[in-house]
Amino acid sequence: MVANALSKALQQLHPNLRTNGFGIGNSHRKLSLTFIPPSTKSPLFVYSKTGARSFLSLGTDYDEIPEEDEDEYGGDLSRTVSLPSQITERSQEPELDWLLEEHTRRYSSVQNSDDEDDEDGDDALGVDTDQTYHGYQDESDDFAHFMSRIRHNRATANVTQRRNSFQSIGSVSVVQQTDEDFVHEKVTLRSEASMLLQYSIPLITTFFLEQVFAIVSVLVVGHIGKNELAAVSLATMTSNIIFAIFEGISTALDTLCPQAFGAGDLYGVGIHFQRCTLMSLTLFIPFGIAWWYSEALLNLLVPDEQVVHLASVFLRIMLPGAPAYIIFENFKRYLQAQGIFEAGTYVLLICAPLNVLCSYLLVWNKYIGLGFIGAPIAVTLNFWLMLVLLTLYCVFIDGDKCWGGWSKRSLDHWKDLMHLAVPGMIMLEAEGLSYEIMTLFASYFGTTYLATQSAISTLASLLYMVPFSVGIASSTRIANFVGAERINCAKLSAEIGIYSGVVVGVFNCLMIIIFRRPLANMFSKDDQVVDMIVDIFPLIAVVEIFDAMNAVAGSCLRGQGMQRIGSYINLVVYYVIGVPLAWLFGYYWDFKLEGLWISIGFGLFLIGVSESWCVIKADWKKVLEEAQLRKINELENAEMSD
């Protein structure tokens, strides 16, 4: 097993270091790999078909040599030795260390000689030492990186050897067989576009149904009165700010879980899920306290005391459902990493209608209706029902193959997780908070403007789910291929995702323009509010194109593990450009809502273009190296926990 691990690393050797069977290629000379005295009786060496001797761990499976070729491959040895098993049994770390050390020593001596001969130049030998290998996976493999790959593969083999079975201890991260073979999957433009569509459709349905909870609350409560509509808008704004923090943390799983699954580390997917969930629930404690005392905080921002009081009541009743929602978001990503996108759809096909029914009964029913407070009660009950049903789906239908039981490893490496979680949180929070600041600005224009902004924001959030679903699908495919070290396929998935985002944005734009009057009537019976919504819809339609680009590009960055780039872009554009412009257009030039949306639209344009460029022009070599580094750290964590 160790020899096979060494074989895989040797196969990825940089072309300047590769051997054709005679030695390692070097610009000045060739250093023989077979520096051990050759022998046909040694299980480490056989004769190749060219007559040259080569190290067997370069990939020859001795058991598979045809019988008619046995003499050519070493004669009697092939009839008496099962080489892979012999090497697995006999080769331990100390016995291979001398090979790696000698390899390093001889390479270093060659490099030192090269440095001394540099004065003669390359032209003296007619060799270009600066030639670059044009490939996705090997272009970064200098000798040091090659040796680190050998040691990483040895570590993987040692972890595997020390554990007889994952199921027996429930916490081991080893490479296992997956239903999808990302390493050998044939990927074309058509197949990848088809896969993206296949993944996106259930996600679109899932996110649409998930948004029903917020929409139902707005619709049901909004028809009670303007104050109630403004209060539910304010409460939704506050809860969205807090939920965005934990949704941002869960986006770390968009990188970690699919990459682990693509690499065949099934139980690593479950451990990442456990670690992220435990960390999120721990961090929620102080936010939950602030949520409970939200009335004092909101009074500092909103002048209408009645609206603030109603919003505070809504939030307090909704608070018990927050942990269930946080776990549900992490759970979805755990399943999505395995290509299980329909689970959330099935769950929400049950819960969304129940939420409508519960909201109606608890708000409007003359026997059990509770009025305004019935809406948050319905939301809380359905959050817990969603979690229970998704758990049952995983246990009894599909998704448990990546669950190896609770592991103490989930209590470690929270700091490493935060390196991905914090930028992801900043990305989502920067965007979400900017929308809520717009809602806050609108509250100063009057209740009618606030109600209009509430309706527009709700519709924009609903339409956002379409490109966001495409982005999640693209992110999953990108991370799967990065985990499988197929960077060219990951790049293709990223490009298809970006172009699809533009198409979806245009589709959303047309839907708003065509159906602007019916959509406006869905949100209010107040003629003044409806007319204001219809008037601003053409501007919102254009903004949706840029919003779609932003949604897909941001997700692709998470699939690449480049959340930090997205966080920088979002922070600068929203809060250095977008929010100041919103004040300038909305207040100083008195454009009110139109000014707010012109500002946010310009910001979304800058973000969408910038992030799309970063995705397409990404340094894929660095993406792969960072993914491999995370894999090595996880293996080290497994060894320390064992």
UniProtKB/TrEMBL annotation:
Task: List localization entries.
Answer: Membrane
InterPro entries named among the record's database cross-references: MATE_euk, MATE_fam
GO terms (BP aspect) = xenobiotic detoxification by transmembrane export across the plasma membrane
**Which membrane topology term applies here?**
Multi-pass membrane protein
State the superkingdom. Answer: Eukaryota
Report a single Gene Ontology molecular function. Answer: antiporter activity
Which NCBIfam families does this entry report, sorted A to Z? matE
Q: By what name is this protein known?
A: MATE efflux family protein
| Organism whose genome encodes this protein | Cyberlindnera jadinii (strain ATCC 18201 / CBS 1600 / BCRC 20928 / JCM 3617 / NBRC 0987 / NRRL Y-1542) (Torula yeast)
**Taxonomic lineage:** Eukaryota, Fungi, Dikarya, Ascomycota, Saccharomycotina
